[in-house]
Amino acid sequence: MIRQEGRLESARRPIASRSSGWAIALAGRLARAGVTPNSISVASVGFAALGGALLLVPHPLAWIGAALCVQARLVCNLLDGMVAIEGGMKTPTGALYNEFPDRIADTLFLVPLGYAAGLPWLGWACALLAALTAYVRVFGGSVGLAQDFSGVMAKQRRMAALTLALVIAAIELPLLGTRWALLACGAVITLGSLVTCVTRSQGIARALTRA
């Protein structure tokens, strides 16, 4: 059985589903099978690549498949940390695999979102600002502060918005022939990520001023 460590590391994103029975059981099975947390992190990129490719296919079933890939990516993000920490399989390169695949996965989802919505620049803006939110968070950690995972468009909220938009778009496309849900999603993620960058930066500034 996976052992539960009492402390929460400052560089670990707080996720409510980490304490759910299915997550604990699945992480336990993976750990016992010898599946490494780094391989789970890499698998998240695979799901993102598949989801991004499906996003570019203008068909309801493809977009539902892309939505499922978004959720599969998030499950990987949940399980890699659980296998590493609770499963006792931390590696020296764990921090690297915890961050880099996430940035790649975000890009693989968000750039195609812009193309699917008919505004390629919007997808690139989404991806750039999503990466910037992570940069600000990690920068806070680099100056000795606890990493700030908060914000109106943190990763889970970006992916939740994308999942919802894909499901709506899969209904909208055959009924109306439009893609407003995807366009709205791109705009919301872009603006929300910008706000998140600002609020996290302000939090760092306040913390450094008090120090």
TrEMBL record:
Top-level taxon of the source organism: Bacteria
Keyword Chloroplast: no
InterPro entries cross-referenced by the UniProt entry: CDP-OH_PTrfase_TM_dom (IPR043130)
Keywords: Membrane, Transmembrane, Transmembrane helix
Transmembrane helix listed as a keyword: yes
Full protein name: CDP-alcohol phosphatidyltransferase family protein
Stretches that traverse the bilayer: 39-57, 121-146, 158-175, 181-199
Organism encoding this protein: Roseococcus pinisoli
